[in-house]
TrEMBL record:
InterPro entries: Anti-sigma-K/W_factor (IPR051474), Anti_sigma_zinc_sf (IPR041916), RskA_C (IPR018764)
Keyword Ribonucleoprotein included in the entry's annotation: no
Residues annotated as signal peptide: none
Spans through the membrane: 105-122
Organismal lineage: Bacteria, Bacillati, Cyanobacteriota, Cyanophyceae, Nodosilineales
Annotated protein name in UniProt: Regulator of SigK
Membrane topology, record value: Single-pass membrane protein
Major subcellular location class: membrane
């Protein structure tokens, strides 16, 4: 905020110098005390002080590097030595303001450099923080995507394959076995669908639980009342109660009189051993 130049009656006519000296960092302790008193009495000068500091912060951006002419530094040092031998102490005191001005500009340059370095450090810190935040958000989104993919695959696997069931039922020679639960699974039921001379079978079940990883369902085909059961593959059920698999023996689709589904351990050999949970016939 700009200020009008103080009148001649201003109790501190050199307040501009005090503000500039404070921004440059070159005030003596007495001058600092005077400035603090002035700011207390005239708080509106704080805005002017901020303007000085902002202007000083822009100095490094406005300066263009210049190389001194060859021999200039040596000539200055020689001239300074000659003058110091000729000028009286009183003259030395008169030169102090010039020396103070040089110190102030040097201090201003150092202060500006410090401000620039501090600003760069703050910007770098903010960039790192922003990068960490974005990376965390990306990791979260990737985790959500993976979870959605797993859920989609699980839902797809559990979805009943009604199209395949309908396709089998459309065939005039389709074989459909009605299955009922045994004493060990009296609430279970289902239907086993297949076609003659085809190796695929389709099971649509109700209340047939999904087995743990160390257990498996096995299908057995009994050709006649006196025949030994034939192993016709193994499977685990799905939440939807719909599963399809390929039988290992062509006799499994040779219109047996009865089919049996048992529960066995995965490591058991393919011989009738486990308890029956579903039985049925055409």
């Amino acid at each position: 905020m700009p200020f009008d130049s103080p009148s001649t009656s201003d109790p501190q006519p050199d307040w501009h110098d005090l503000l500039a000296g404070y921004a440059l960092g070159s005030l003596s302790p007495e001058e600092q005390t005077t400035l603090q008193t002035l700011l207390t009495e005239r708080p509106e000068l704080k805005a002017e002080l901020l303007t000085y500091q902002e202007a000083l912060a822009m100095v490094p951006y406005a300066l263009e590097p210049q190389s001194p002419p060859p021999g200039l530094e040596e000539a200055i040092v020689t001239a300074a030595n000659e003058q110091s031998q000729q000028i009286q102490p009183l003259s030395t005191q008169r030169r102090r303001p010039s020396k103070s001005i040089g110190q102030r500009w040097y201090g201003a340059a150092m202060a500006a450099a410090a401000v620039v370095l501090a600003m760069m450090g703050i910007d770098n810190y903010r960039l790192r923080q922003r990068q960490m935040t974005l990376q965390a958000e990306l990791n979260t989104r990737q985790t959500e995507i993976q979870t959605l993919k797993k859920n989609l695959l699980a839902e797809t696997a559990a979805k009943p394959d009604f199209e395949n069931v309908v396709e089998i039922l459309r065939q005039p020679n389709a074989l459909v076995y009605s299955l009922q639960g045994t004493d060990d699974a009296n609430t279970s039921s289902g239907s086993l669908l297949t076609l003659p001379n085809h190796s695929e079978v389709q099971l649509v079940s109700h209340n047939l639980p999904v087995l743990p990883d160390d257990k498996v369902y096995r299908l057995w085909s009994v050709a006649t009342e006196t025949s030994a059961p034939i192993f016709c593959g193994e499977f685990n059920n799905t939440e939807a109660g719909n599963v399809q698999w390929t039988v290992p023996d062509a006799l499994c689709n040779a219109t047996p009189v009865k089919v049996i589904i048992t529960v066995d351990a995965v490591i058991d050999p393919p011989v009738p051993k486990g308890p029956a949970v579903l039985e049925g016939s055409i």
